[in-house]
């Protein structure tokens, strides 16, 4: 004879949960607690039935008795507990990690006027600081650069801030800030461009205005860092 545990298992399977553990995870329950209800080790009442019914899209009364509300009302003299209809809403709020409203600030590098290809001297001078966006708030060494000129318009506009993630691997098609040193004791020049390739011979970047590729010998490349996002600070 089918019991509550059998009906609970049937409802779970009908809802697409192949295992009791998958259902328990979706319900936010311990697998052992749910499993004990399904295998009949422990009984469950109306409160649990309504939670299961909501998740499995079934009737809580059917889980408890094997009959639906309409079947029960068709039987003269039957009394349906008032706490079964309507279904009680199950709280769905989740407690997550505390949001740090303070955040931390990162330096912005750049200069007022860029070079012919929008490059600027990366000499460590900080223009100002801005609040790190959430996706960079825990990245060590994150920084930002001020876009100079329109060499990458319409992707980036003059004066926009590009936020840099130095820890992320760069792939073809990414936008990057490449730091180049032409002479051993010379200044480091920074270029915000589209990444094409980088190998033991050369670094190749794409520029939009005017459209062209910029090629740098590998031995002149100091670093190539990923542009995570950009916008107005």
From TrEMBL:
Keyword tags: DNA-binding, Transcription, Transcription regulation
Occurrences of domain HTH cro/C1-type (ranges): 8-63
PROSITE patterns: HTH_CROC1
Gene3D superfamilies in alphabetical order: lambda repressor-like DNA-binding domains, Umud Fragment, subunit A
InterPro entries tied to this protein: Cro/C1-type_HTH, Lambda_DNA-bd_dom_sf, LexA-like, LexA/Signal_pep-like_sf, Peptidase_S24_S26A/B/C
Domain of life assignment: Bacteria
Cross-referenced PANTHER family: FELS-1 PROPHAGE TRANSCRIPTIONAL REGULATOR, PTHR40661
Protein name, entry field: Helix-turn-helix transcriptional regulator
Organism for this UniProt entry: Rhizobium lentis
Record lineage: Bacteria, Pseudomonadati, Pseudomonadota, Alphaproteobacteria, Hyphomicrobiales
